[in-house]
Amino acid sequence: MKIGAIILAAGSSKRMGEPKLLLPVKEKPMFLHAVERAIESNLSPIHVVAGKYITQIERELIGLPVYTSFNKDYDKGMSTSLKLGIALVTGLCDAVIIFLADQPLVSLTVIESIKAKYMKCKSKIIRPKYNSVPGHPILFDGSLFSDFTLIEGDIGGKTIIERYKTELEWLEFEEEEWGRDIDTREEYNQLLLKIDQ
Fold first, then answer.
1. With DSSP H G I counted as helix, E B as strand and the rest as coil, what are the percentages for the chain, rounded to 5?
2. Largest Cα span, the chain
3. Quick check: pTM over 0.90?
4. SS3 call for 169
5. Positive or negative: CA dihedral 41, 129, 6, 182
6. HSE toward the beta carbon, residue 180, CA cutoff 13 A
């Protein structure tokens, strides 16, 4: 069974006011943490879908076993990045794990648990909960890839998750920070304080 990865890195950082994915976290750009976890988990292929800041993102990925793709419609919402990413991995893997590039503390433990669950039961969707709060990354089985052609706007895969909720498997983790995404300067500052402790 082959599991790929899509890393959503096309956001325009409107709430942050600057390109948040390029801000340093543990001495590397924020987005690079999700990329490295995907590589460490031996996911393949790995596609980073970028938007406005693709030039800077590509520069950081030189030499890494990943592909980058430009989403020209990045300002029309997350669904456009998901559609592009899914189109790129269709036929190349049995399932895909979708990462948010603004979750720098995503744990290898979570990814490996998702992979193990999929290998065991072939669930259509596998999603983590962090202290009971639903989060990312999320695995989607290849049988659902065609459903992504119908999504619109900035809701991501929520409609697909709702449609197949009876075939959704949850994985529970206590560590809230593993699923924390960074949208504002305040959240970024809190993150820096957390990792400096």
1. 45, 20, 35
2. 44
3. yes
4. strand
5. negative
6. 18
Omega of the bond prior to 24 within 30 degrees of 0, cis? no
Distance, CA of 126 to CA of 154 (rounded, Å): 21
Taking the C-alpha atoms of 7, 29, 155 and 14 in order, what is their torsion angle to the nearest 10 degrees? -150
Number of residues that make up the chain = 197
CA-to-CA distance for 124 and 58, rounded, in angstroms? 31
Looking up tokens 């895909």, which residue turns up?
96
**Sequence-distant (≥ 6) Cβ neighbours of residue 68 within 8 angstroms:** 47, 48, 49, 50, 54, 57, 58, 61
At 143, is the secondary structure helix, strand, or coil?
Answer: helix
Interaxial angle between packed helices 108-121 and 30-40, expressed in degrees from 0 to 180 and rounded to the nearest 10: 40
**Is the distance from CB of 130 to CB of 176 less than 8 angstroms?**
yes
The tens place of each residue's pLDDT in the chain, 197 residues long, gives 899 999 999 986 666 667 889 999 999 999 999 999 999 999 999 999 999 999 999 999 999 999 999 999 998 889 999 999 999 999 999 999 999 999 999 999 999 999 999 999 989 999 999 999 999 999 999 999 999 998 988 877 899 999 999 999 999 999 988 988 888 888 889 888 888 64
Rounded CA-CA distance 84/120 in Å is: 28
